[in-house]
Design brief:
Bound molecules: ligand 9G3
Number of strands: 31
Shape: globular
CATH topology of the largest domain: BirA Bifunctional Protein, domain 2
CATH class of the largest domain: Alpha Beta
Distance between the termini: 27 Å
Helix content: 25-40%
Largest sheet: 9 strands, mixed
Radius of gyration: 29 Å
Number of helices: 15
CATH superfamily of the largest domain: Bira Bifunctional Protein, Domain 2
Length: about 575
């Protein structure tokens, strides 16, 4: 391809609405253009990357025995009424009506559609197991689409669905998909971790997420370098820490109420008492569906709302308004505590080991000290409610865990019979008995994977594409397009490298050298060959790797072999 023919409108300035680096670079390098909030056009360079990602996905899905189909984006309301999800997803679902007034959704996912397809034509255990997949646009009306392709309202997803006769069949399908996902992300060349994840509203009991490690990732993952335990922070287990040594023998001091004017936060109380925040009880009040509840944590811990929501099994979980708190407890935020508290109290496990600690007195401007759980208050229940933190003991091997940010690019779920029951998808087993199919579903954010790759592979000059998904493998830059000898050698090189099976971009534009070098770095081509007067005088060209500072001079006869070997070496996972 010649740069003079390629449509890649680069920008000098960083667009102001782009907050994360992948959004900035995909816009600046002419990969995408915004049509409306969270909805983009993919330009030629992005299409070359997406095509490679999809090719790897297809190869591994097919190798795992999955079969590609393509389902409708326009989905009839009736299917979603059958699963009960038409009303469950309110504003997030794009809805439309046809000319006859019939209602449809723009597909945010395809459990209902695929189960309906399978139910219609699969009747016997002999037809199972079966895994179907598609690569298709999805539509979700995010309240705040942002971060470019990372959180769009229209995005490309590979979604697969497995159908088995029983739980162990599902385990086998799930394991096949899990291994295929590891191969896919290894082949794409991304640093990622598979972690335990919360299944959320989709149902089923467990799921795994694939996280591309990147500081701009919205998710936090907890991991153990020793035993490779990994979990999304939402799901990361906090093992019961044994009572801190010596605490169990400490003398319980007399409960005492003290005046604490202006003390509003755990930190304020720590500063006043000269005790660490871990010697306090943090009290939060939540509205769970219709009920006000009290949640207790050690002062230095953070509440994990996903764990609390899963424990309570409620639909709505929001922090209570101060007015509701005041009318229930007689005090406002900053003076709340578990002592003489009429609300149902849920306490994190770490609270039960606290001795002689501080907390609010449910009276503005007063706190209690020397508070002891069990003596001064008894919670309704203790549970693992807090966020895991770096340094916590690994739930598997006990060594200290670490935390890092990640971008979720894949999520696989065991669904069980949730959708086959809802859609009445059944088959006849060997004894002719009607059984529900057992399902799994498996998603990869294809367009998000491209953005995540940029988040993980960039520097001050622009993108630094991993070879397996780069838009072009080599770019040839004649230093001066006006010089016939330079253009001649560049054209010859272009011909030879293409003949060697490489993907080559020839920057034949009549632009200043600096502009061509800057653009080559911005779009992130891994290998650049500069054809300049000094080198030519010696029968050489300059080879510059995108991820290295230094360049080296290569004799013209050696350049094709050299580049071919470099590309092949960087294509291997
Ligand atoms: C909806 C809307 C948004 C949604 C869903 C449904 C997320 C929904 C979860 C999944 C689970 C898996 C198959 C591929 C992998 C992910 N957002 N989810 O079900 F109606 Cl508006 O999509 N689906």
């Amino acid at each position: 391809m010649r740069s003079s023919q390629l449509f890649f409108p680069t920008l000098r300035e960083v667009p102001s609405e782009a907050e994360v680096v992948s959004h900035q670079l995909l816009l600046r390098a002419g990969f995408i253009r915004k049509s409306s909030g969270g909805i983009y056009t993919y330009l030629p360079l992005a299409m070359r990357v997406l095509h490679k990602i999809q090719q790897i996905v297809r190869e591994e899905m097919d190798a795992a025995g999955a079969q590609e189909i393509l389902m409708p984006i326009v989905q009839p309301k009736e299917l979603w009424e059958k699963s009960g999800r038409w009303s469950a997803y309110g504003d997030e679902m794009f809805r439309l009506s046809d000319r006859h007034g019939r209602e449809f959704s723009l597909g945010p996912t395809h459990e209902e559609v695929v189960t309906d397809v399978v139910d219609g034509d699969v009747h016997s255990y002999r037809d199972l197991p079966m895994i179907l997949y598609q690569i298709q646009n999805k539509y979700r009306d995010e309240i705040r689409p942002r971060f470019g392709l990372m959180r769009g309202r229209e995005f490309i997803m590979k979604d697969a669905y497995s159908f088995d006769t029983d739980a162990e069949g599902l385990d086998q399908s799930y394991e096949k998909m899990r291994q295929a996902y590891c191969r896919i992300f290894d082949r794409i060349g991304l640093k990622y971790r598979m972690v335990d994840a919360d299944s959320g509203a989709i149902g089923g009991n467990n799921s795994n997420e694939f996280m591309v490690l990147a500081s701009s990732g919205e998710d936090t993952i907890i991991y153990c370098d020793q035993c490779h335990y990994g979990a999304n922070l939402e799901k990361a287990v906090c093992p019961e820490s044994p009572t801190v040594e010596g605490k169990s023998t400490t003398k319980l001091l007399e409960l005492e109420k003290i005046a604490t004017p202006g003390v509003k936060t755990v930190k304020d109380l720590s500063d006043l008492l000269g005790h660490p925040e871990s010697d306090q009880i943090k009290t939060l009040i939540y509205l769970a569906d219709e009920e006000l509840i009290c949640v207790l944590l050690r002062g230095d811990h953070e509440l994990n709302e996903t764990k609390l929501k899963n424990l309570l099994g409620c639909n709505l979980l929001v922090m209570a308004a101060e007015s509701d708190v005041r009318s229930a407890l007689g005090a406002g935020f900053g003076s709340l505590g578990p002592v003489n508290n009429p609300l149902k109290i849920y306490a994190d496990n770490a609270v039960q080991h606290l001795v002689n600690v501080g907390c609010g007195a449910n009276e503005d401007g007063f706190h209690f000290i020397h508070v002891n759980p069990g003596r001064d208050f008894v919670p309704y229940a203790y549970a693992d409610l807090r966020n895991a933190a770096p340094g916590d003991p690994c739930p598997c091997c006990g060594r200290p865990v670490g935390a890092m940010r990640g971008v979720e690019v894949g999520h696989i779920f065991k669904l069980g019979e949730k959708y086959s029951r809802a859609m009445n998808a059944t088959y006849l087993d060997q004894s002719g008995k009607v059984q529900y199919m057992v399902m799994g579903c498996y998603g990869i954010g294809v367009s998000r994977t491209m953005a995540a790759a940029v988040e993980q592979n960039n520097d001050a000059h622009g993108m630094t594409w991993p070879m397996p998904i780069t838009p072009f493998q080599v770019i040839i830059v004649p230093v001066n397009a006006k010089k016939a000898d330079q253009m001649e050698v560049a054209e010859q090189l272009y011909h030879d490298l293409e003949n060697a099976g490489l993907e080559v971009l020839l920057d034949d534009r009549d632009e200043r050298t600096g502009v061509k070098f800057k653009d080559a770095d911005l779009i992130g081509i891994p290998i650049r060959i500069n054809v300049g007067p000094k080198g030519l005088a010696l029968g050489q060209v300059e080879l510059k790797l995108r991820r290295e500072e230094e360049a080296e001079m290569i004799a013209l006869p050696d350049i094709v072999t050299k580049v071919k070997n470099l590309v092949e070496a960087q294509l291997k996972p």
